[in-house]
């Protein structure tokens, strides 16, 4: 988790610009909602006049109730219409906020997908979840309440001033001079609150990452008897977060108390003045009463703005994280429409793939892969082997297009790839990592992820090929069995086979596997290996291999050491040559780790 300095003025402008841009999709709805709210306020002014007039007529002009009944009926009608307008306006602004939130979530997800899994790993999964969920949710109040209240705090007091000044200019002057005190005070307090809120969001991100990590590693923590220690640490971080939240709340309460106090004093001042003027007979009752009725309504939008000011702070703090994700330089062209002609078009391609002089080092380190050149045929099984840290995962991440900056080192027959080819290139690849991801859905839906429009027959064939059919059919609900998160309820081998079925169903040109037969009993391992061998006759299969049996089946073996390919050939040749491969075999045989 990187600690960020408090956003300076330029950053603030950037964030406000971002929030404004994002609201463009629902700007019409927001404007309509604000227009309804303003009409509602105008009707409120008319109601005040009607009420004051009716009371004046009955109390001071001796009119009976029937004489003012038309006023009262209109007043009743206005109250009803105002209620409807208020409800509609609130619904519309809430809907606008929902639309904007969905839009932002979609943009963030698209960007995160485009940046690839390494970005998520680097930022932390918990922090990412926080931004996508709590962060985007924090924008709801900003759009649904804060933005409309900014408009109301300008429009409604102005409308009241316009009608009060001709009626009673002295009261108008009091309104005019006391009103700016509220926003002034808000800005004064806002500065401090903003800093605290920013810190609070950073702590929330740390907390999110911490929780996420610890929950994932709960088994390890239990085994190492570290649960108590971790609980203490979690309590400490939660406590820090609680303190940060409380200091924000302290300021929020203090500021809303001060705002309420200012508004109350101002209304009281107006009331006292009106009282004196009525007493000395320099003001008639109807005017005095209208001013008294309108005085709280004049300060109400300003007080509401003060109450919703925290929504602005929350919104801006949350937007910081979002903007950081959206501005991370990635492969922008991936979101563009697919190019008309692509380096993947099959016209002149015999299916072979070359990787030339591929080098990639991780930022701030010299580790990675260096100068890797591979000539991969259209079909067959290629095994990649090497000690841990040799660079196998990095090579495959580059091959899968997770690092767009090196994608031009890959050529599938029609010239080097460009970044725009990555989405299409990824469609050509099915990938099964060591711990395949299964989703909270039925087995069938999990398999169909590879081909959403597949028929049931195709799903069954894929499952059979992957050696998964027998165990799926033995389950009470068969293919409709609902899996828990991460395939909860299945053994490691069963998850591997479902992932394999998914890959077979996708039927991509290239299948990449990491240790495919790990977790399998020897009978199933034979079946799955046979299925993969069969698949390799018509497809290119790239395997990160650790088992001797996998190496023996491979058409070609690439041995990696310190990020370089140091030996290449088939098992027969390599095992007879003196070199790193033979050393690896010997050390493994001695350790008895493989086969
Ligand atoms: P393998 O998959 O063969 O075990 P990796 O491709 O994971 O090896 O790692 C290759 C080298 O790159 C190692 O020296 C490792 O320490 C380094 N490395 C891997 N991931 C990162 C990362 N995210 N940041 C910095 N260095 C990394």
From TrEMBL:
The gene is cydD. The keyword Disulfide bond does not apply. It is found in: Cell membrane. It comes from the Bacteria. This is Thiol reductant ABC exporter subunit CydD. It comes from Paraglaciecola mesophila. The chain crosses the membrane at residues 29-51, 71-88, 146-165, 171-190, 251-279. It is a multi-pass membrane protein. The lineage of its organism: Bacteria, Pseudomonadati, Pseudomonadota, Gammaproteobacteria, Alteromonadales. Residues 353-587 form the ABC transporter domain. InterPro entries: AAA+_ATPase, ABC1_TM_dom, ABC1_TM_sf, ABC_transporter-like_ATP-bd, ABC_transporter-like_CS, ABC_transptr_CydD, P-loop_NTPase, Type_1_exporter. Keywords: ATP-binding, Membrane, Nucleotide-binding, Transmembrane, Transmembrane helix. The keyword ATP-binding applies. It holds the Pfam family ABC_membrane. Residues 32-314 form the ABC transmembrane type-1 domain.
């Amino acid at each position: 988790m990187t600690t960020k300095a408090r956003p300076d003025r330029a950053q603030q402008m950037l964030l406000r610009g971002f929030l404004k841009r994002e609201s463009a999709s629902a700007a019409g709805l927001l404007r309509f909602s604000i227009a309804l709210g303003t009409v509602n306020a105008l009707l409120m002014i008319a109601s005040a006049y009607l009420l004051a007039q009716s009371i004046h007529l009955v109390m001071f002009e001796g009119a009976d109730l029937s004489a003012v009944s038309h006023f009262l009926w209109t007043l009743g009608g206005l109250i009803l219409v105002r209620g409807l307008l208020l409800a509609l306006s609130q619904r519309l602004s809430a809907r606008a906020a929902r639309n904007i939130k969905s839009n932002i979530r979609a943009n963030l997800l698209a960007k995160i997908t485009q940046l690839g899994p390494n970005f998520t790993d680097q930022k932390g999964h918990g922090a990412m979840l926080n931004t996508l969920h709590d962060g985007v949710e924090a924008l709801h109040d900003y759009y649904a309440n804060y933005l409309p209240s900014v408009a109301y705090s300008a429009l409604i007091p102005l409308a009241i001033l316009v009608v009060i000044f001709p009626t009673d200019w002295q009261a108008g002057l009091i309104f005019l001079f006391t009103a700016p005190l509220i926003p002034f005070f808000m800005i004064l307090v806002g500065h401090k609150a903003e800093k605290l809120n920013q810190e609070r969001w950073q702590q929330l991100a740390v907390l999110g990452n911490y929780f996420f990590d610890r929950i994932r590693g709960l088994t390890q923590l239990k085994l190492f008897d570290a649960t108590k220690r971790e609980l203490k640490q979690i309590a400490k971080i939660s406590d820090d977060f609680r303190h940060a939240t409380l200091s924000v709340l302290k300021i929020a309460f203090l500021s809303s108390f001060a705002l309420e106090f200012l508004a109350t004093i101002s209304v009281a001042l107006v009331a006292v003045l009106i009282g004196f003027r009525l007493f000395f007979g320099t003001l008639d009752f109807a005017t005095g009463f209208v001013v008294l009725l309108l005085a709280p309504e004049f300060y109400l939008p300003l007080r509401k703005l003060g109450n919703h000011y925290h929504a602005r702070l929350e919104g801006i703090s949350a937007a910081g994280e979002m903007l950081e994700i959206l501005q991370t330089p990635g492969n922008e062209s991936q979101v563009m429409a697919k190019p008309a002609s692509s380096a993947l078009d099959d016209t002149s391609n015999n299916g072979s793939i070359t990787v030339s002089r591929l080098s990639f080092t991780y930022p701030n380190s010299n580790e990675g892969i260096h100068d890797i050149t591979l000539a991969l045929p259209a079909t067959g099984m290629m095994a990649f082997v090497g000690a841990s840290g040799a660079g196998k995962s990095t090579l495959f991440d580059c091959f899968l297009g997770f690092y767009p900056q090196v994608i031009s080192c890959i050529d599938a027959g029609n010239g080097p790839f460009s970044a725009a080819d990555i989405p299409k290139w990824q469609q050509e690849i099915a990938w099964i990592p060591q711990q395949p991801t299964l989703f909270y859905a039925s087995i069938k839906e999990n398999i169909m992820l590879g081909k959403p429009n597949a028929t049931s027959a195709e799903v069954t064939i894929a499952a059979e090929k992957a050696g998964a059919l027998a165990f799926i059919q033995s389950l009470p609900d068969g293919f409709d069995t609902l899996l828990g998160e991460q395939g909860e309820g299945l053994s490691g081998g069963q998850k591997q086979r479902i992932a394999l079925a998914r890959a077979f169903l996708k039927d991509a040109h290239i299948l990449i596997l990491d240790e495919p037969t790990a977790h399998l009993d020897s009978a199933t391992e034979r079946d799955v290996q046979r299925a993969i061998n069969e698949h390799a006759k018509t497809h290119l299969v790239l395997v990160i291999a650790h088992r001797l049996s996998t190496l023996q089946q491979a058409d070609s073996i690439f041995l990696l050491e310190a990020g370089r390919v140091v030996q290449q050939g088939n098992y027969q040749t390599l095992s007879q040559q003196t070199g790193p491969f033979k050393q690896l075999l010997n050390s493994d045989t001695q350790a008895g780790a493989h086969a």
